[in-house]
Amino acid sequence: VIPERPDLEMPMLDERVSPDFSWRIYSGITGVEGRQWLARVQASEYRQIPRYRFGHNLFQIISVEKYADSNPEYFAEIGGERNTYAPDPPYGPQPCFTNPEVIDLTVEAARAFFDANALEDTFSLCTNDSLLFCECAECSALDSPYRESRDGWRIYSDSYHYFIREVAQRIAESHPGRHVSAYAYWGTDLPPRRIEKAPENLIVALTQDTAQHIDPEYRAIDRDVWLQWAAYADNLAKYDYYNLGLITPRYFPHRAGEDIRFVHENNAIGFYNELYPNWAIQGPQLYMFSRMLWDTSLDPQTLVDEYIDTLFGAAAPHMHAFYAACEAYWAQPREGEWFQGLYWPGEEHNINLEIIEEAWAHLGRALDSAAGVALDRVRDVRNHFQFSYLIVKGHALANRLAAVPADAVPRNATS
């Protein structure tokens, strides 16, 4: 939306703005138009951002391909055997975090990276994307008695952060001012118990699925975990998952806004978001998100209103009703669950034909009331939302058919 002005005169302006989150990274937005949108909302670029470099990386340092045959002891011991099987390396075994040679090799890799990249200030020590953690005698001595996360997986944070501390301290000596990074994710999403405070040069990205804050208990646990990490690590960032490519409505702007403000008030320095958005549904939330990462004092509802009123003109009242229905769809009462709805046909967990019909009807009314470019925008939203609508409707009808007893259908029935 470009405002119309009768001339190009601008008032005198002297203003300096510092965003509330020093880096703002969005993934899953691609193509020319996607890059243009990221530029317009002033998202951070990936390159050479201070205190930012994350990504599953240990598989590249302690490589199965390189070390499996010669040094199986470098890899996780599980059930008494070393796991060296990694058909897709990011999902393979973790290193043995207490092995001194593993620590030495990791320090060498970090130093080589900094020596070759003068403008980079952070090196990733993020775990591989798996729960294949080492349970050898030395690692188990640190992690036991084992804890479980709220979502039911075993926690290995003590052995992992022993490894992190050893590497971070040696990097601080050889490369002062540089950092290492770690995910608080999956098997390491709770802070360690045996190390009171993180090294000053460690940056932690805590992964949380804020979409699940429709469950008050889930939200309370997330916030408690955040505060635990904030007490442990001086450099803490948020890593969130706003859509993950879901087709059915996953729209929660008010809970997202509350969370952005909460983490900022409790020491968040940056925000990484896996978006993979469904634009027809999530547009207002992503606009709100982008604005609040710069200024958390802004009101989420005001930003959502600004988006809808500006884009849709006379059709705005019906579009407000449409997006309210999308939010109500996601907010149906249920227990929160990590990545809920991600795996097809997992989206059927939340099927509600009544709400989706209501949303579809609001789009029809918006079409009838819109004109000009606003009509084009409403039509675009409706065309894209139609697939979401049909998926929900198809699931609902299939569920009704599945509930009909087999003996209640005449054998000669044709429809």
Task: List low-confidence stretches.
Answer: none
Average pLDDT, all residues? 94
Q: How would you characterize the largest beta sheet?
A: 6 strands, parallel
Helix percentage range: 40-55%
Strand order of the largest sheet: 1-8-7-6-5-4
Rg, nearest Å? 25 Å
Report on this structure.
With 415 residues, the protein is of the alpha/beta class. The chain contains 13 helices and eight strands. It has a six-stranded parallel beta sheet with strand order 1-8-7-6-5-4. β7, α8 and β8 form a beta-alpha-beta unit. It starts with 22 loop residues before the first strand and ends in a 13-residue tail after the last helix. 40% of the residues are buried. The mean pLDDT is 94.
Set down the secondary structure blueprint.
Elements: E1 23-27, H1 31-40, H2 58-61, H3 64-67, E2 77-78, E3 81-82, H4 100-116, E4 122-124, H5 137-143, H6 157-174, E5 179-184, E6 202-207, H7 216-232, E7 235-241, H8 253-265, E8 268-274, H9 279-292, H10 300-312, H11 316-330, H12 353-369, H13 372-402
Parallel strand pairs: 1-8, 4-5, 5-6, 6-7, 7-8
Antiparallel strand pairs: 2-3
Helix pairs in contact: 4-6, 5-6, 8-9, 9-10, 10-11, 11-12, 12-13
